[in-house]
Design brief:
Blueprint (H helix, E strand, L loop, with lengths): L21 E8 L8 E8 L4 E5 L6 H8 L7 E6 L2 E2 L5 H7 E4 L8 E2 H5 L8 H10 L3 H5 L8 E2 L8 H15 L3 E5 L7 H15 L3 E5 L3 H6 L2 E6 L2 E6 L1 H7 L2 H7 L10 H4 L5
Parallel strand pairs: 3-10, 3-11, 6-9, 9-10
Antiparallel strand pairs: 1-2, 1-4, 4-5, 7-8, 11-12
Helix pairs in contact: 4-6, 6-7, 9-10
Length: about 270
């Protein structure tokens, strides 16, 4: 049953000087209460830290991100942003402080300028162009017939997936939120665009708290810490080197040299491999 999420009576805005920390405290959640997709999940992301969430498809990574933005409420436990339970703060202030970049970037019919300005209508043209330059999108935008005034079709028709991703990065940069939630695209993009995206990610995460659902090994290796989810539970967490030394699921995935965690054979993913 979909519950409408509304602000609590007396909900406050997240303070502008909040530290940008994120904490899951014993979180249990399921779209239907009898089938939890997250079970007693706890982890903390320090201000300015980038944490990669990894794990097989269905391990609960995307559900965790939905709870952070409060698209749903937890059944048990707490999701805490900047020291405050997300249920006690306004959704508008959560929206301002948490920028989300999804795997299938959402672009609407309108100009590229309007799309990048989406979360911050008072951004100047200079702001928009500076953000596009920073993430490596400026050159291909300028090569379009009307540059920034090029009107996008529904879903950004004329642009490649990689280009749409870069525009959504520019949008997140302009929004200047304290926390960045990223579901990294796994779609087959050419290696040049992939290089741009990896560079853009570094720019985007500088000075921000980042929670990245990471598929690519390059992104995972660059994270300050890695949290491995399996079947809705935190299996292990640590740096890349610590997890390799731990010699459990992460080390197995890594040594099998999968380009992406989604390439995992089902037996490995469910932990049934000997």
């Amino acid at each position: 049953v979909k519950v409408d999420i509304i602000d609590a009576d007396g909900a406050t805005d997240l303070p502008e000087d909040m530290d940008g920390s994120v904490e899951f405290r014993n979180v249990t959640f399921g779209y239907s209460p009898s089938h939890p997709v997250l079970r007693d999940v706890s982890f903390r992301v320090e201000p300015g830290e980038t944490v990669a969430l990894v794990g097989p498809t269905g391990s609960g990574k995307s559900s965790a991100m939905s709870l952070l933005k409060r698209f749903y409420d937890v059944q048990d436990g707490q999701v805490i942003v900047g020291g405050l339970d997300v249920r006690d703060v306004t959704q508008a202030s959560l929206g301002r402080e948490i920028a989300m970049v999804l795997q299938e970037p959402y672009l609407f019919s309108g100009t590229i300028m309007e799309n990048i300005r989406y979360n911050k209508s008072d951004a100047t043209e200079e702001d928009v162009m500076a953000a596009a330059r920073a993430v490596g999108a400026h050159d291909f935008i300028m090569a379009l017939p009307q540059g920034y005034e090029t009107v996008m079709g529904e879903r950004g028709g004329a642009l490649s997936l990689g280009q749409r991703q870069l525009i959504s990065f520019a949008r997140a940069l302009v929004a200047d939120a304290r926390i960045l939630v990223l579901d990294e695209a796994t779609a087959s993009i050419d290696s040049y665009t992939e290089m741009l995206i990896q560079k853009a990610l570094k720019t985007l995460l500088r000075g921000r708290t980042g929670v990245v659902i990471a598929h690519r090994l390059a992104t995972i290796r660059d994270a300050d810490r890695i949290i491995v989810l399996q079947a809705g539970e935190v299996l292990e967490q640590g740096t890349h080197d610590e997890l390799i030394a731990n010699d459990a699921l992460y080390a197995r995935l890594y040594s099998a040299n999968y380009a992406s965690f989604d390439d995992l054979p089902e037996t490995e993913a469910t932990g049934r491999a000997s």
